Amino acid sequence: MKVLVTGHNGYIGAILMPMLRAEGFDVAGIDSDLYAACDFGGTPPEVPSTVKDVRDLTQADLTGYHAVLHLAGLSNDPLGNLNPELTSEINHRATVKLARLAKAAGVERFVFSSSCSNYGAGGNGMVRPAPPTHPERAQ
């Protein structure tokens, strides 16, 4: 199975890529390299990759893949708070566009991964398995 991972050089992607390869997946990555040379645990393994911002992806970038694992995004509240409009552009609008492009390209599976910032602050009480989300309260 051919799998494309966006944000493959990031915090999660750098760990996920070797795991996918070990399971026999044919993997490739796309990353803006915003954090180039900030590797945890050494240099990431060599995989076919493209340096490209997730906002600039096209249907052609996704053609031929069976799955897209979408990890690319601004990953924490302090970073997101620096420029909320940019955060929305990357984490929301680019993700929706990517999902639509993947569907148009015939990608069979699209997996969107997110941090708890997507759900917002749960408050001080007990959080149930399916609480309502409050991204506007993320801190």
From TrEMBL:
Coiled-coil ranges from the UniProt annotation: none
Entry superkingdom: Bacteria
Gene3D superfamilies: NAD(P)-binding Rossmann-like Domain
Alphabetical list of Pfam families matching this protein: Epimerase
Domain NAD-dependent epimerase/dehydratase: 3-124
InterPro entries: Epimerase_deHydtase (IPR001509), Lipid_A_modif_metabolic_enz (IPR050177), NAD(P)-bd_dom_sf (IPR036291)
Signal peptide region: none
PANTHER family xref list: BIFUNCTIONAL POLYMYXIN RESISTANCE PROTEIN ARNA (PTHR43245), NAD(P)-BINDING DOMAIN-CONTAINING PROTEIN (PTHR43245:SF23)
Protein name: NAD-dependent epimerase/dehydratase domain-containing protein
Species this protein is from: Lamprobacter modestohalophilus
Taxonomic lineage of the native organism: Bacteria, Pseudomonadati, Pseudomonadota, Gammaproteobacteria, Chromatiales
